[in-house]
Amino acid sequence: MMTEPLVAEREPAAFVPRILAFSCTWCSYQAADLAGTSRREYSPHVRIVRVPCSGRVDSSFVLKALANGADGVLITGCHPGDCHYVRGNIFAEKRFERLAKLVLALGLEPERVRLEWISAAEGDRLAKTANEFAETIRRLGPLK
Ligand code: FES
User: pTM higher than 0.85 for the full model?
Assistant: First the structure.
């Protein structure tokens, strides 16, 4: 006779990563739109927050996201030389270098934060990056 297994005998629930992406409105946010209209699927676990420029993403935004339940944070912006605010992405890159060191110093895996340049025309690249990052976070497991 088949019986339902006890709760303790069941497979552990699959880990569903919670990923926040801060995406520049001029480029990668539009790339996400393009991916959608092109029916290019990407991980539903990546939630996008539109920002005016990658340079607007303060490190405190990322740390707050990680402290409040995100398992990973992706920042995406215009390619070098294409920032609408000229040097916003340069600032973002310098800030990200400090952020990555801080994340490591806090005892977290540095792979939990990532910075990528993705133009409005790169819907495929946005989808690929989101999927890769989601897989990286899935392998790392939940942030405790
Ligand atoms: Fe896109 Fe600055 S406007 S990164």
Answer: yes
